[in-house]
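hey m, so remember when u said the tokens were messed up on ur end? i reran from scratch. heres the input so u can diff it against urs
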Amino acid sequence: MAQQSSLEERGRYGRRHPRPGLTTASVVTAGRQLIERDGLDALTMRAVARELGTAATSLYRHVADRDALLLLILEQIAEGLPVEVPGDTPRERLLGRLVAAHDYLAGHVWVLHILIRGDLVAETAFSFVDACFADFLEAGLSPEETRDAYWACWHLMLGELLAQHPLVPPPEPSQRTRAVDEADDGRLPAFTRVRRATQQAAAEGRPAEDLFGGSVGRLLGALLRADR
């Protein structure tokens, strides 16, 4: 009987040591740490339970399922998006806020792979959106133009992050790097002219993160026309 009790205590996944004071916050923190260490696909309720040294069934007292946990993690990340930023004009504030959001999300690119599913949204992110809307409206855009301008900036940010900040950086030189470097000047004259200018900027020490700031700055210049 003692041996059977010992086996039951050890359980299927080895000895468990119940963690006193298990909370929703501790479950969210464990899930986020698991994703950041092992990747988004590693997030399962059993894996989080192992992180916490408890049974998976105990997690369901705090979160309904994996998607509910993902949403809580999204809410936690979204709390870090910039809202109040310095700037005397709407354009200055928009540029500062968008660049700061880009740099923040560059450290959490895995979040974007949750967002592009299209079915989850963090309500804590609405303060960021509202601040951007307010600046576009103050700059003279109509509500419809504000919506379109915000999505143009957001999609630029999303595309840049997904393209330039892969979840797992490839070994260099990658196939993409080689293909760009070996593009034929005669067949692709415009492509290679821009490539050379980009390479020259990099050689002169222009930080890569400045590229998004330049792109979104030009986009804002077009969206916030001087005659407004």
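this time it looks ok to me. DSSP finds twelve helices and no strands in the chain. if urs says something different then somethings off w ur setup not the seq
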